[in-house]
Amino acid sequence: MIKSSVIRVGSRGSALALRQTEEALEQLRPSQPGVDFQVITVHTSGDADQTSSLAEMAPNIGQGVFVKEIEQELLNGNLDMAVHSLKDLPTIQPDGLTLGAVLKRQDPRDVLVNRWDCPLDQLPEGARIGTSSPRRKAQLMDLCPQAEVLPMRGSVLTRLEKAKSEDFDGAVLAAAGLVRLEQTEGIAEYLSAQEFVPPPGQGVLAVEIRDGDQDLRNLLMPLENSESRYAITAERAFLEKLGGGCTLPVGAFARSTGENLLLTIFLASADGKRCFRAKIQGLLHDPLQLAGDAYMALLERGGRQLLR
């Protein structure tokens, strides 16, 4: 039983982060009518720096520039739980914290928006496409070599505005963010997750709590989605296999096919000129084995040189 009638919920302050937090709370409130969920916004270092590229702020993948201040507030006892976009969370959490619930996945794909409202393969020569993600940049260079990829930072709404400004012709963003903000009318193309591979956890919300808080874990049970949990476990375990010091553009996306999981992986050289993709299938209930098999496939099928 929850001892307090007030639960303090941590969130970033952006429009998307607050919408994601509300999405989780909308699913919780019916089963907890006596609980007052108080949303507390925390300013993170990733939000504070709107000029540096993500690669500059977090040269090693998964350093958590959008979550570490929130996690510290959780550890300090100033928050009871926090709602995150799972792709922002490092694969290894700080001691004392755990994922209390993994929600059902929203659309995992990336999308293209551009001033011509055309698909990726029809972008004109020299089209200026913005992204702050090394993974998106590498896949744009591979799949759309005629485009010029330019750095673009800012909130989802800011990047949508920039996408058709005088400095850019378009941008690549996450579908889930545009769906949650009801900004889908400008999408020119939903990019296949098997070809334009998303990062681990894209489209998934997770609730982080202090390890050992069984009452809160029980309260969060209505949010838990086992299919999403298996998928993100495989994706994040593959990323962890690459090592905490990995600085290469990487993607991983798992989807269930009955009793199996199909994991699509992507790895590129730092300059984006060499790319590797592979699909590996394994048992749904053994995502860690699947991640290990994917890593071995990466090494055996030519990815070893990229890691070197």
Q: How would you portray this structure in words?
A:
It is a single chain. By secondary structure, the chain is of the alpha/beta class. It has 3 domains: 6-103 and 204-224, D-Maltodextrin-Binding Protein, domain 2 (3-Layer(aba) Sandwich); 110-190, D-Maltodextrin-Binding Protein, domain 2 (3-Layer(aba) Sandwich), CATH 3.40.190; 235-307, Porphobilinogen deaminase, C-terminal domain (Double Stranded RNA Binding Domain, 2-Layer Sandwich). 32% of the residues lie in helices and 24% in strands. The chain has 10 helices and 13 strands. The strands form 3 sheets. It has a 5-stranded mixed β-sheet. It has a 5-stranded mixed β-sheet with strand order 7-6-8-5-9, with helices on both faces. It has a 3-stranded antiparallel β-sheet with strand order 11-12-13. Helix 9 runs parallel beside helix 10. The longest helix has 21 residues, at 287-307. The radius of gyration is 19 Å and the shape is globular.
DSSP, total strands: 13
Order of helices and strands: EHEHHHEEEEHEHEHEEHHEEEH
Query: What's the pLDDT, averaged over the residues?
Result: 92
Instruction: Say which CATH homologous superfamily of the largest domain is assigned.
Output: Periplasmic binding protein-like II
CATH class of the largest domain: Alpha Beta
Number of helices: 10
Structural class: alpha/beta
Oligomer category: single chain
Range of helix content? 25-40%
